[in-house]
Amino acid sequence: MKKLSLISLGILASLQLANAQTISSKKWADLFSYNNVLAMKEDNGRIVAAAENGIFYYTISTGEITKLSKANGLHEVKISAFDYNPQNKIGLIGYQNGSLDVVSPDGVTYVVDIPIATGYNGSKKINHISITGDLAVISVGYGVSIFDLKKKEFKDSAFFLSGGIYEASNEATIFGNKVYAVTDTGLKTHEMNTTFPVFTTWVNELAGSFKHIDSEGVLSFSSANTAYIYNGGTSTALSQSFTNVHDLVVNNNNIIVTDLNRVYTFNTNGNFNNTVSFGEECNTATTVGSSVYGGTILSGLKNETNNSFKPDGPYFNYAYKINLFGDNQVLVSSGARSNRFNTASINPKNPGFYYFNGMQWIYSSYFVGSTTRFNILDVVSDPANPDDIFFTNYNDAQGRGIYKMKYNASSKDIAFTKYYDLGTTDVRTRRPVGLTFDDSNNLFATIAFSGQDAALGAFTAIGAYDRATDNFLIKNTTSTFGAAQKAFYYEGLLWMPIPRINSFIAYDTNKTVNTSDDKEYILNQSNGFATTSGGTISVAIDKSGDAWIGGDVGLRILPNAVSAIKTPANATVEPIIIEQNGLGEELFRDGQILQIEVDAGDHKWVSVDGGGVYYLSADGQQTVKHFTKENSPLPTNSITDIKVDRKTGKVYFVSYDGIVTYQGDVSDVTSDFGNVLVYPNPVVYSNFKGKVTIKGLAEVTNIRIADAAGNVVHSAVARGGYYEWDLNNQRGSRVASGIYFVLMTNEDGSDKATAKIAVVN
Predict the structure, then answer these.
(1) In this predicted model, which residue has the larger pLDDT, 333 or 25?
(2) What distances in angstroms separate CA 600 from CA 484, 498, 645, 698, one per listed residue?
(3) Per-residue pLDDT tens digits for 79-98
(4) For the domain 677-760, what is the CATH superfamily, name and number?
(5) DSSP label at 568?
(6) Distance, CA of 114 to CA of 656 (rounded, Å)
(7) Does the pLDDT of residue 12 top 50, yes or no?
(8) What residues contact residue 705 under an 8 Å CB cut-off, 6+ apart?
(9) Which of 82, 109, 510, 533 supports an S-S bond with 50, CB 3.0-4.6 Å?
(10) Domain ranges for the chain
(11) CA-CA-CA-CA torsion for 212, 216, 219, 224, nearest 10 degrees?
């Protein structure tokens, strides 16, 4: 049986960052894919494996699987290289942006100062890492660098510059006192001495295009279809020829060559031992005793009987929109979007969608090997029949339309049921974007580029799902906006952003699929949208009934949205003005607002393209938190979707680089108190210097905090279900050590709650 925990390599993120800022905490978790194993190393019956966004540790004898990612210790995503030394228990992780994480029993150290060659403007990606003892040789696009694992600093670097052109080191290894590097022009070597940085002193031992190299007792390297043993200037080809070598590893008494979906093992004399097929393409492989393990692209680690081992997660990391439903169930679309437009371009991996059934992630076999081009912008479960799943396929080729699938709990698969082409054979038109249910479980689709007209352009349309005929009824709106976004249902209306024109639609379906009695209400630039905006992208409606509309430039609020939208000629959308240095300034004036989400306490989560995620007070006047990829586990500063589970307060952040969650402090907020909780408690200054959180409060809570003698040291009014106390008294100085009593009433005094806080200075 597999066991899963968050402790990896014997540590739990006692972090030592370059900027001394901790970016992870117990509130964060990752929902990354660990299917694509890039590199791995065996350590006394355990395998340490690197995937795209994290590493995991598999103990063969017990089946225990632990993981380490940006959510609990690492500092980046998009791993490109990895190696691990079983003797000193130190691992080195290289990223596509050129940074490194040093993982040791003492914690994780972030290294950002990798040497860069003067005048080099290419990729900073770490191509390969090879550890020998306390030294690692790191291959990059302009040469190699030596890294001291003990001191956690770089030693010498050699920049492969010849004729004004930099040459990449594909891989390199330390063998004896020499560094051996393979490039597209040959096998290059140099002793680790004072002339190491001078490229003209490097020796080109063997001409050719070589991709992989490794050493342990012997030195072996390979081209795309031939592997060699190198000894004293002589290269000897292994007996087997290959189709496309993906990796070459030397360990113990084996040379292991990964060739597409087959792995070949040889002894250190070059004699063939065995071949293993894992039934799919592999990136790498290793041996543990006499057994071979493959690092696959799609199934994590595999043993020789094709059993798979990895942390559970989505099939891929690509994610665009997320929908929460039922009992902890999740649907994730993979999507494709460029700038502020939905795009018909297709991800070459054809990712489809991912489903979490409350216990495990499910990936439909329908997508595996499918030749249909999928660009799934949205996927939903039917509330009337939760096993029925609908998704939109937005592209400009065959297969564009809406699909119905059926989840089978016994087989843990999702089967194709029906395809709806939306009534047109023109591949340019009727591209479905989003799916939305009303409060009567009627399903509506927002559709872009419906009814192409040479003079008018393309209409934005609504598709209404008729359960009786099992088909979609299509109605064009009166506007030739062309584009559409996923609609938000509220008070009988579908609230739909329009990304290509500075407009917004509220569509009244009359809660039926009959389209003959539908109405539409349109806002445009004359209603107050920014003159520089090219369209609207996101919308949410808060507890006050105000619509928060995000555009490609700026944020606007439509107060009393339902009544205001029905008289659009008189409606005005307003910016939020905040005070900066004594002057009024528009909130997010130049930002593209990718998503807005309202939590149970009426706080707003706002994703700004390239700017991370802001957590705002109910009125937007105060920034409670600002998460970026630099100060948090967010994998990117462009979060395409945000969803809050109002029962638990958990917040999901979705991006093309993966999904992470944050355990918020607000859940199930009502006019009365919930389960009031204070943390940390006790507050020991030597261990914690932040604010104390009180959660489980009413929507409006009157708070008084008194000392043991009954003196009130602090009072406040909390809104939104939680409160943070900085442990200061009413004079602004920190309270003394002791027990403090928190006395709370809701807004009308009909409900009360109390708590104690112990303070140790």
Answers:
(1) 333
(2) 28, 27, 9, 11
(3) 999 999 999 999 999 999 99
(4) Macroglobulin (MG2) domain (2.60.40.1930)
(5) G
(6) 26
(7) no
(8) 712, 713, 714, 715, 725, 740, 741, 742, 743, 757
(9) 82
(10) 315-421, 677-760
(11) -20
Alpha-carbon distance values, 311 to 75, 506, 509 (Å): 19, 43, 44
- Contacts of 559 by beta carbon, 8 Å cutoff, 6+ apart: 544, 546, 574
Rg, Å, the chain Cα set? 29
**Element containing residue 562 per DSSP (H, E):** helix 561-565
* DSSP conformational letter for 515: G
Residue for token pair 């009166």 = 478
Least confident of 403-417, 445-459, 599-613: 445-459
Token digits of residue 575: 């910016």
Q: pLDDT-derived band of residue 18, with 50, 70 and 90 as boundaries?
A: very low
Out of 60-69, 212-221, 352-361, 392-401, pick the least confident: 392-401
Mean pLDDT, rounded, of the chain = 92
Contact 179, 144 (CB under 8 A): yes
pLDDT at 16 over 70: no
Q: Which residues neighbour 475 within 8 Å (Cβ) at sequence distance 6 or greater? A: 461, 462, 463, 464, 515, 518
Q: Cα separation of 392 and 316, whole Å?
A: 18
Task: Assess contact for 542 and 598: CB atoms under 8 A.
Answer: yes
Classify each residue of 285-311 as buried b or exposed e, where b means 16 or more C-beta atoms within 10 Å of its C-beta: bbbbeeebbbbbbbbbbbbeeeebbbb
**How far, in Å, CA of 431 to CA of 336, rounded?**
13
Please name the helix (run of DSSP H) or strand (run of DSSP E) that holds residue 337, with its range, or none. strand 337-338
CA distance 416 to 387: 12
Predicted confidence (pLDDT) at residue 10 exceeds the cutoff of 80: no
| The predicted structure's pLDDT at residue 14 | 30
Give the tokens for residue 84: 């691990």
Under DSSP, the state recorded for 552 is S
pLDDT per position as a tens digit, 172-216: 999 999 999 999 999 999 999 999 999 999 999 999 999 999 999
- Secondary structure of 199-234 in HEC code, one letter for each residue: HHHCEEEEECCCCEEEECCCEEEECCCCEEEEECCE
Rounded to an integer, what distance in angstroms lies between the CA atom of residue 321 and that of residue 716?
38
Residue type, 495: W
- Secondary structure (3-state) at 365: helix
User: Cα(319)–Cα(333) distance, rounded to whole angstroms?
Assistant: 6
- Count the neighbouring beta carbons within 10 Å of the beta carbon of residue 247: 23
What gap in Å lies between CA 221 and CA 598, rounded to an integer? 56
The DSSP 8-state label assigned to residue 367 in this structure reads: G
Q: Which H or E run includes 107?
A: strand 107-111
pLDDT given at position 427? 55
End-to-end CA distance of the chain: 46
Q: Write down the residue that tokens 């040379």 correspond to.
A: 255
Q: Is 68 a residue whose pLDDT tops 60?
A: yes
Measured CA distances, 210 to 138, 181, 277 (Å)? 16, 9, 24
CA-CA-CA-CA torsion sign (577, 578, 584, 590)? negative
In contact, 286 and 41? CB cutoff 8 Å = yes
Does 268 have pLDDT greater than 60? yes
The answer, yes or no, to whether residue 677 has pLDDT greater than 60, is yes
* pLDDT of 2 above 90: no
| pLDDT number for residue 118 | 87
Cβ atoms within 10 Å, residue 153: 10
